Amino acid sequence: MAEPFTAPIDNFFKPRGVAVVGASATPGSPNNQIVQFAKQMSLTGNVFPVNPRSEEIAGLTCYPDLMSIPAPVDLIVIAVGAQHSLGVARQIAQRRGEKGDAGAVAVVTAGFKEMATAEGEQLQSELIATIKASGARLIGPNCQGVADTYNGINTTFSVPPNTPQGGVSIVSQSAAFATSFLRWARDQRLVGVNKFVSLGNMADLDFRDMLAYMGDDEKTKVIAMYMEGIGDARGLIDIAASVTRRKPIVVIKGGKTSLGTNVAQSHTASIAGNNDIYDGAFRQAGVIRAQSVAEFYHTARVFDKMPLPKGNRIAILTVVGGPSTICVDELVSTGEVSLAHFSEELKLEAAKYLVASANIGSPDGYIDMTASVNPKMHTDVLKLLMNDDGIDGIIFMTTPPGFIKDDELAAAIVEGYNSVPDEKKKPLLSVMLAGNAVARCRTLLEEQGLPTFEFPDDAARVMVNMVRYSEYRRRND
Amino acid sequence: MDCRKIITSSIAAGDAVVPELEAQQICRAYNISCPATVLATGKAECIAAAQSMGYPVVIKIFSRQIVHKSDVGGVITGIASAGELDQAYDRMMANIAKNSPGAEIGGVIVQKQMPKGVEVVVGGLRNDQFGPVVMFGMGGIYVEVFKDVSFRLAPLDKDEALRQVRETRVFKLLQGVRGEQPCDIDALCDVIVNTGRLLAEYPEIAELDFNPVFCYPDGCTVVDARLVLKST
Hints:
The complex is a heterodimer. By secondary structure, chain A is an alpha/beta fold. Chain A has helices at 10-13, 30-41, 82-99, 118-134, 175-186, 207-216, 233-243, 267-271, 274-284, 293-305, 321-332, 344-353, 375-387, 406-417, 439-447, 456-475, and strands spanning 18-21, 47-50, 56-57, 60-61, 75-78, 104-107, 137-139, 145-148, 153-154, 165-172, 193-198, 222-227, 249-253, 288-289, 313-318, 338-339, 359-360, 366-368, 393-398, 428-432, 452-453. Helix content of chain A is 40%, strand content 17%. In chain B, a hairpin with a 3-residue loop joins strand 5 and strand 6. Chain B has helices at 3-12, 20-29, 43-53, 82-99, 143-146, 158-166, 170-174, 185-201, and strands spanning 37-40, 57-62, 75-79, 107-112, 118-127, 131-138, 149-153, 205-215, 220-222, 225-229. Chain B contains 8 helices and 10 strands.
């Protein structure tokens, strides 16, 4: 047997074929769903169920074992019970030795180290040893593997095959956390996804490998990570720091509290919990850390859709007073963002378009158009704000009045935003405070690439994150 | 004596914490300013040392057997003249004879008493997952209560240290409030950077605390330096 060479990670995302070992013919079971999704999303159709007890699954020819698949197979999904996984690993090693493919392995099965039993640990280490000796790479175990909307790959039973394409790649220690995002976002077209990786136990590939890979991946514009912890946090931060010079990384971290005991001899060591060190290290590396799930979701998707602000001067355009107060409070609370300064010309110009009772510039950087608005006013004022070089970003807030139609309002906002050439564009975040009553307006805007929000404070937090990251990029350029 | 020798001999002596005088020598080697400090072996030497550094001074007992000096009356502060020092010296010797009769007295440390400044803490530790980490925050005895601190991985540069300082609430105090002069934040950032360098260059140091560091409009001084070595 030739010396095994370590397979590139590309095998997970651009495989010539995908085998699902442990595929099930029972509709409604996870192991049937994996095959269905893999088939529905596949661009090549090279999906191969493996199960000695079936001849056909989901309309695909089923093979008794890995060796009997006649076509090249780069990605193997292990979906058999934990105690049978070692046997599959040996088949992978054999196939690698004889055919040279089978370089990527996603172990969907649970029942390994996460059980915290000697048996689970033993199984995991034997599995990894066998896979590694063959030169293949492994994601998991206890994960859902990968999905790639551009290359038509899906090893999961929960990432919807009709997930919209886009620039966000998700790397998550928990599959459930990430897939719930995709399901939530799908109908309103909130997020466009490139790659999805569920890391599980990280027995081989971990956050460091995935960050390095996504950092070089052209179609990935933003990396969104849900993490709980990693042994080599320094290594992770070093890689993150090199990636954030090219593209944003947004993180939400579980496990903030520490239940550990402390035997420190200094004040420093008694205070320093890992969570606080993560805070500092993420800031140092330009990683944006979200404090809530909503902030995480929105920040990641807005980074994909909007340009970075060139500075920290933000204008507020609103039709509603109360929510704007909440928004401004949140916006300026960290001290990193301020309201823009309006020139006299801008104020005079805006007054021409609006009703006499409109509030222009009190406070500075703030325009309340009042409820006496029509779609044209939205376009005219947005054009003005988009054109002004003293403004680096805009938050727009409305509870759309019943007399303005969803599509008219959406078109007016889109026209205002697109009135300047791309190099002059700045982030515009639209807050639509009316729940399902404005679902259509939101969807229309999202389809045009303009991000929308339900709540004003969420929009403010995303804007702060964009300003923070933009500042990091400017000082590292 | 260089830092390497100090650390090696501290480890050889079985010290978990580097003795104060040596800790100060390490600080000075890293351009981290400490108050003038002299080890004197008798009363006359004490007075001469205080004379040359100027009053007020602090005296501390120097003995390997005494870990918690203030508990046994081994620290006397605010000594303003030679006359006061004369009496303080005798008082301290009486305290020690009474409270720690068996202790071998290596001498008395005479230290320039620093005027109050804004109290901050600069600390460091070696974390299993992150390696060398530097802490900055509000100093003094309440540091663990208020936890007004921020962290950075070491080594770090001065711009990063400044961002670290800005993340804390004590930063507002350093900028000067109610007509106070602002503190020398530049000098403080140098201390943070140099602390990071020290920690990164000596893996034998497990934890360190400079608390308090007094910040003044012109410079800052580490009043108490505690270097904890890795237990092997």
